[in-house]
Request: fold
Amino acid sequence: MLSLTCKTAIKAVIYLASKFESGEKSGIKEIAEFIDASEHTVGKMLQTLVKAEVINSAKGPTGGFFITGKQKNQAIIKIIDAVDGKNVFEECGLGLSKCSATHQCPIHNDYKVVRDKFKTLCQQKKVSDLCDTVNDGLAYLVG
Amino acid sequence: MLSLTCKTAIKAVIYLASKFESGEKSGIKEIAEFIDASEHTVGKMLQTLVKAEVINSAKGPTGGFFITGKQKNQAIIKIIDAVDGKNVFEECGLGLSKCSATHQCPIHNDYKVVRDKFKTLCQQKKVSDLCDTVNDGLAYLVG
DNA sequence: ATAATAAAAGCATTTAAATACTTTTATTAT
DNA sequence: ATAATAAAAGTATTTAAATGCTTTTATTAT
Ligand code: FES
Ligand code: FES
Reply:
């Protein structure tokens, strides 16, 4: 459902959120190393997130990527919309060009329920929620 | 979650199921045309399904692909297992190498629910169920 | 037996995602 | 002002999935 880059994006934003308290900015290399992802993929993806105002960046020395309190409070669907596009949760489970009740595929009714449940999850989970579980040692970003 | 080829496979098997009553066998070309997919992808994928005994084939004139009553009664997860592998429903939602409760990612608890729901759907829906909705004009394989 | 048919199999190409590299631009500390 | 730093941007390569093509093998009807 989500691209690899999108999953990486969610982990990167959680990492940035964990640096919010201290106010530290983080460089591409640091982020990529921590979440165990390709530096280049991370760099490009972070730019996308900056454009979508999901995170912020500053150039030059002492620069880097960072997140604001408001952004930390955003649901992770914002990250998904920015990286994979707004269409993720509207796609047909059997690959029809358009998911619709009036011209539905054979699994539409049941698939829609699952897909909507996933969408709701992404709408409800805030970056800060996920960050907390990591900070508390209840969840991990690598492994 | 499912590959494009896997979605194509489900549609192809539903098509074969619709030919069960008449006993007709279907050729690659005919199937590909009906479900609006690449002939070559369909050919290769059908071979995989034959090997996995999800469908059957016969060479030579009057040959083609067909399905037995028993196979028509199978759940679509058999198709998924054959084409995309048995691991589809065990994958971590954030891309960790292994999904496990003891070393979980930040969305594990909620994601697992959704993923399991989708798995249950694939275990419960039989080829014949989906075939019926198409035959009754309630659902479509293309469009 | 022979020819025709259709799947099986193997290899090649295309496409899109992911990853890698290089250059440019902005910012800050000196 | 200058040099150092780090993101931004653009281009190129790699990888895996999907698609395309060609040859082989098995089967059936004649
Ligand atoms: S039409 Fe296939 S999921 Fe809605
Ligand atoms: S660990 Fe990520 S879904 Fe289970």
Residues 42 and 58 of chain A are 16 Å apart (CA to CA). Chain A touches chain B through 40 residues (CB under 8 Å). The two ends of chain A are 21 Å apart (CA to CA). Strands of chain A lie at 56-58, 64-66.
